[in-house]
Design brief:
This is Metallophosphoesterase TT1561-like domain-containing protein. The protein is α/β, with parallel strands linked by helices. The protein has 3 helices and 12 strands. A 4-stranded mixed sheet has the order 5-8-10-9, with no helix packed on it. A two-stranded parallel ribbon has the order 1-2. A hairpin with a 2-residue loop joins strand 3 (53-54) and strand 4. The longest helix has 10 residues, at 88-97.
Length: 151
Protein backbone atom coordinates (compact mmCIF):
# COMPACT_ATOMS: atom_id res chain seq x y z
CA UNK A 1 0.00 0.00 0.00
CA UNK A 2 2.73 2.47 0.95
CA UNK A 3 4.64 1.89 -2.27
CA UNK A 4 1.44 2.36 -4.27
CA UNK A 5 0.63 5.64 -2.51
CA UNK A 6 4.19 6.88 -2.97
CA UNK A 7 4.11 5.98 -6.67
CA UNK A 8 1.29 8.51 -7.16
CA UNK A 9 3.85 11.31 -6.77
CA UNK A 10 1.11 13.57 -5.39
CA UNK A 11 0.64 15.24 -2.02
CA UNK A 12 -1.06 12.93 0.48
CA UNK A 13 -3.35 14.25 3.20
CA UNK A 14 -4.09 11.64 5.87
CA UNK A 15 -7.22 11.91 7.98
CA UNK A 16 -5.95 9.99 10.98
CA UNK A 17 -4.85 6.52 12.03
CA UNK A 18 -1.73 6.60 9.87
CA UNK A 19 0.62 3.99 11.29
CA UNK A 20 3.85 5.00 9.59
CA UNK A 21 3.85 8.59 8.34
CA UNK A 22 7.66 8.46 8.07
CA UNK A 23 7.35 6.04 5.12
CA UNK A 24 4.99 8.20 3.07
CA UNK A 25 6.33 10.77 0.60
CA UNK A 26 4.65 14.17 0.35
CA UNK A 27 2.56 13.43 3.44
CA UNK A 28 0.76 15.71 5.90
CA UNK A 29 -2.18 14.82 8.07
CA UNK A 30 -4.32 14.98 11.16
CA UNK A 31 -4.39 12.53 14.05
CA UNK A 32 -6.95 9.82 14.72
CA UNK A 33 -7.73 8.03 17.96
CA UNK A 34 -5.54 5.06 16.96
CA UNK A 35 -2.37 7.06 16.25
CA UNK A 36 0.38 6.25 18.70
CA UNK A 37 2.74 8.67 20.39
CA UNK A 38 5.57 7.80 17.99
CA UNK A 39 3.52 8.77 14.95
CA UNK A 40 2.33 11.95 16.66
CA UNK A 41 5.86 13.02 17.66
CA UNK A 42 7.22 12.23 14.20
CA UNK A 43 4.51 14.31 12.56
CA UNK A 44 5.01 17.19 14.99
CA UNK A 45 8.82 17.13 14.72
CA UNK A 46 8.71 17.12 10.92
CA UNK A 47 5.93 19.73 10.56
CA UNK A 48 3.59 17.15 9.02
CA UNK A 49 0.76 17.55 11.53
CA UNK A 50 -2.05 19.77 10.24
CA UNK A 51 -3.29 21.78 13.21
CA UNK A 52 -5.39 24.49 11.56
CA UNK A 53 -5.45 24.68 7.75
CA UNK A 54 -4.06 23.03 4.65
CA UNK A 55 -4.93 24.23 1.17
CA UNK A 56 -8.48 25.59 1.50
CA UNK A 57 -9.41 23.03 4.18
CA UNK A 58 -9.54 23.63 7.93
CA UNK A 59 -9.42 21.33 10.92
CA UNK A 60 -10.94 23.90 13.26
CA UNK A 61 -14.11 24.64 11.22
CA UNK A 62 -12.80 28.14 10.40
CA UNK A 63 -13.45 27.66 6.66
CA UNK A 64 -16.43 26.36 4.68
CA UNK A 65 -14.37 23.28 3.76
CA UNK A 66 -13.36 21.05 6.69
CA UNK A 67 -11.42 17.86 7.41
CA UNK A 68 -12.04 15.62 10.40
CA UNK A 69 -10.92 12.18 11.45
CA UNK A 70 -14.37 11.22 12.72
CA UNK A 71 -17.73 11.45 10.95
CA UNK A 72 -20.61 13.29 12.59
CA UNK A 73 -22.94 11.17 14.69
CA UNK A 74 -26.15 10.57 12.77
CA UNK A 75 -24.72 10.87 9.29
CA UNK A 76 -24.87 7.83 7.06
CA UNK A 77 -21.22 8.12 6.02
CA UNK A 78 -19.36 6.49 8.91
CA UNK A 79 -19.36 2.70 8.81
CA UNK A 80 -17.00 0.15 10.35
CA UNK A 81 -17.72 -3.59 10.14
CA UNK A 82 -21.30 -2.78 9.16
CA UNK A 83 -21.88 -0.57 12.21
CA UNK A 84 -22.67 3.13 11.86
CA UNK A 85 -20.18 5.29 13.78
CA UNK A 86 -19.95 8.99 14.51
CA UNK A 87 -18.89 11.71 16.90
CA UNK A 88 -21.21 13.93 18.95
CA UNK A 89 -18.55 16.63 18.93
CA UNK A 90 -18.24 16.69 15.13
CA UNK A 91 -22.04 16.72 14.86
CA UNK A 92 -22.23 19.73 17.22
CA UNK A 93 -19.54 21.59 15.27
CA UNK A 94 -21.34 21.00 11.97
CA UNK A 95 -24.60 22.27 13.46
CA UNK A 96 -22.85 25.33 14.90
CA UNK A 97 -20.60 26.26 11.95
CA UNK A 98 -22.57 24.92 8.97
CA UNK A 99 -19.57 24.10 6.73
CA UNK A 100 -20.28 23.59 3.06
CA UNK A 101 -18.26 20.36 2.97
CA UNK A 102 -16.64 18.01 5.49
CA UNK A 103 -14.24 15.22 4.53
CA UNK A 104 -13.71 12.52 7.15
CA UNK A 105 -11.85 9.28 7.71
CA UNK A 106 -12.73 6.54 10.23
CA UNK A 107 -14.97 4.67 7.80
CA UNK A 108 -14.51 1.68 5.52
CA UNK A 109 -16.83 2.94 2.79
CA UNK A 110 -16.68 5.86 0.40
CA UNK A 111 -19.90 7.81 0.55
CA UNK A 112 -21.48 11.25 0.36
CA UNK A 113 -24.50 12.48 2.28
CA UNK A 114 -26.26 15.73 3.08
CA UNK A 115 -26.17 16.35 6.81
CA UNK A 116 -28.17 19.38 7.99
CA UNK A 117 -27.18 21.33 4.88
CA UNK A 118 -23.52 20.29 4.87
CA UNK A 119 -22.12 17.78 2.41
CA UNK A 120 -20.32 15.05 4.37
CA UNK A 121 -17.84 12.87 2.49
CA UNK A 122 -16.28 9.66 3.78
CA UNK A 123 -12.93 9.06 2.08
CA UNK A 124 -13.16 5.34 2.85
CA UNK A 125 -10.46 2.96 4.01
CA UNK A 126 -7.05 3.39 2.42
CA UNK A 127 -6.37 -0.26 3.28
CA UNK A 128 -9.12 -1.10 0.79
CA UNK A 129 -7.50 1.24 -1.74
CA UNK A 130 -9.94 4.11 -1.29
CA UNK A 131 -8.61 7.62 -1.70
CA UNK A 132 -10.02 10.93 -2.84
CA UNK A 133 -8.32 13.18 -5.32
CA UNK A 134 -8.90 16.75 -4.16
CA UNK A 135 -8.78 19.58 -6.71
CA UNK A 136 -9.57 22.54 -4.43
CA UNK A 137 -12.69 24.59 -3.78
CA UNK A 138 -14.56 21.48 -2.64
CA UNK A 139 -14.09 19.60 -5.91
CA UNK A 140 -13.04 15.96 -5.51
CA UNK A 141 -13.15 12.56 -7.12
CA UNK A 142 -13.42 9.12 -5.52
CA UNK A 143 -10.60 6.81 -6.59
CA UNK A 144 -9.42 3.30 -5.79
CA UNK A 145 -5.65 3.07 -6.12
CA UNK A 146 -5.86 -0.66 -6.83
CA UNK A 147 -7.89 0.12 -9.95
CA UNK A 148 -5.62 2.87 -11.25
CA UNK A 149 -3.87 1.66 -14.38
CA UNK A 150 -1.33 4.46 -14.78
CA UNK A 151 0.88 3.22 -11.91
Amino acid sequence: MIERLNSLNKPILGLGDVECPQRLKNFRGILGEMDNITAMKYMENHSLLVKERILDLSVDFSTPLVISHLPPLGSSTGMIYGVMVGSKSVRARILAHKPRLLFHGHSEVQSVADFHGSTVVSIGSTLMGYVIEYFGNGKFQFTNIYEMTNL
